[in-house]
TrEMBL record:
Entry coiled-coil feature ranges: none
Signal peptide: 1-19
Protein name: Oncostatin-M-specific receptor subunit beta
Domain of life: Eukaryota
Statement: the UniProt record of this protein carries the keyword Signal: yes
Domain Fibronectin type-III: 223-304, 333-415
């Protein structure tokens, strides 16, 4: 029996010479190997074998150490001692250094040194992490993660499978992934095939594992970038965009994304269109007149099965910039009952300032934009003025009731409609009064209810602060119920506030300012 053990250890000595550091008079050998598979090994043995011992007396003075820690051992035969070691549960990849020492009066004397490596077979990544892309059906490239959880000489071998067997592909690598490109011609592959089967073999010092991937060519096509985008046949609200692309004859549907961005940042949209075959034009509708737009176009092939990392298969975006034609304003300015002030009053005449909300720049629809404001008396007299600001003061109007009509215009024409408000002679009993304006990360505005009247609602007007009680720009209206005598806004910029009371018979007070 001792002879058999000696022969086994002698064979292991030859097998592990490259991995172990040999002493002059002893060697360390591991059983079952100096590379331990943590997945199926619970214990291992470390042998110290004398290579020039002349008697059994020498063996009694030998000890085995793991670093500086003494390991319990037993004498196996005249030249060998052995230590039995249990594998640590849930151990990760690591190595241990063992030494064989002779106990001398002057202290332990090292005779041999050896390393044992602990690891696991290579871990396989999820199949969906193997990603292949066919660039407009011209060539295919694939990549997969180079995930190495412990350094045990892990290698990756990718190949294609065909009737002739396994054909290895040349791959390139960085720290994150391995890549293969069909243009390098390193393995059996044809773009004309409907699909390709790949086999990946991952090997380390512990074991080897493999995984198969079947790639359907039409499901991985990434179309080329659309080119020569042109916008034509433009109107105030539409534009036809055309482009060129080489045709892809696939038994698949195509999905296009059209992303529209205006210079004002208004009316932006992202729209998806699914079609049975490739298209080369698109009609953009519901545009704002006299506005610069940029349209981005990209396309992808819809696969028959769910495809991970779907965003990778969109083509690059192509863009075209165009401007819609001018058009007369579509909307009239917003007005509110009570949005006026009687600035000056004599026995039979008054000056009245009226206010309305400005129309945003992107709705001017052309050059030469302005407002037309008309005061119409009960007798039918009309007083009209064209202005640029959202306010106007009528001078020397006869005291009485007026309808105020406000529309917008530009160089093309005037808005189809107008909005109307009313002004009434001043009645002090109908006037609300601002109670307080408190500012703290916004505004809290409150007012007193008219003592001798019962409003049905209130109109609150506010705008950017001016030194005088007026609004020139950024005017905004809020209608509040009669039971509500306060208003809160989170706007932090300096603001002017004014409030008017509205009554059931559609009569209103003028504005009271803070």
């Amino acid at each position: 029996m001792k002879l058999l053990v000696t022969l086994i250890l002698a064979l292991k000595l030859i097998s592990f010479q490259r991995s172990f550091c040999l002493g002059k008079s002893a060697i360390i050998v591991a059983e079952p190997s100096n590379v331990i598979n943590l997945e199926n090994t619970t214990a291992y043995s470390v042998f110290c074998v004398l290579t020039n011992a002349s008697s059994e007396e020498n063996i009694a003075h030998l000890s085995i150490y793991e670093k500086s820690k003494h390991i319990t051992s037993e004498i196996l035969n005249a030249t060998t001692i052995v230590a039995r070691v249990n594998v640590e549960q849930n151990a990760t990849c690591h190595k241990k250094i063992y030494s064989c020492k002779a106990n001398k009066p002057e202290g332990p004397q090292g005779l041999a040194l050896g390393k044992i490596y602990f690891g696991r077979p290579p871990a396989l990544f999820p199949p969906h992490d193997f990603v292949c892309i066919s660039e407009h059906k011209r060539h295919i490239h694939c990549q997969f993660p180079a995930e190495i959880k412990c350094d045990m000489d892990t290698s990756f071998k990718l190949g294609t499978l065909s009737r002739d067997g396994f054909s290895e592909c040349n791959t390139s690598a960085d720290h994150k992934s391995y890549r293969w490109d069909s243009r390098n011609g390193s393995c059996a592959f044809s773009m004309g095939d409907l699909s390709t089967s790949f086999k990946l073999v991952v090997r380390n010092e512990i074991d080897a594992r493999s995984i198969l991937f079947n790639v359907t060519h039409e499901d991985i096509v990434r179309p080329a970038k659309p080119n020569l985008l042109t916008a034509s046949q433009g109107t105030a609200k539409t534009a036809k965009v055309t482009w060129h692309m080489s045709e892809l004859n696939l038994l698949r549907q195509f999905k296009y994304e059209f992303r529209l961005i205006s210079v004002h940042g208004v009316g932006n949209l992202s729209r998806f269109v699914t079609v049975p075959k490739m298209i080369s034009s698109y009609l953009v509708e519901d545009l704002i007149p006299h506005t610069i737009y940029t349209l981005d176009v990209r396309v992808q092939v819809l696969p028959e099965v769910l495809r991970p990392f779907d965003d990778l298969y969109w083509s690059e975006c192509a863009s075209v910039t165009f401007k819609t034609a001018a058009h007369r304003p579509i909307t009239a300015p917003a007005v509110a009952q009570g949005a006026y002030n009687i600035k000056k009053r004599s026995a039979d005449q008054m000056n009245v300032s009226v206010f309305w909300e400005p129309i945003p720049d992107h709705l001017h629809n052309g050059t030469g934009f302005g407002y037309r404001v008309t005061a119409v008396s009960d007798s039918g007299n009309r007083f009209t003025k064209k202005v640029n600001l959202p306010t106007y003061t009528f001078s020397n109007l006869s005291i009485g009731h007026y309808r105020i009509q406000v529309s917008s215009f530009n160089d093309v024409g005037e808005s189809e409609s107008y909005n109307e408000m009313q002004i009434f002679p001043r009645n002090d009993n109908c006037q609300p009064q601002i109670r307080s304006v408190f500012k703290s990360e916004g505004y809290n505005v409150s007012w007193f209810v008219p003592e001798k009247a019962n409003p049905s609602s209130y109109t609150l007007m506010y705008c950017h602060f001016t030194s005088q009680a007026t609004c020139h720009e950024s005017t905004q209206f809020v209608t509040l119920p009669a039971a509500r005598t306060f208003f809160v806004t989170t706007q932090d910029s300096a603001l002017n506030f004014a409030v008017a009371a509205i009554y059931p018979d559609n009569h209103s007070s003028e504005l009271s300012w803070q």
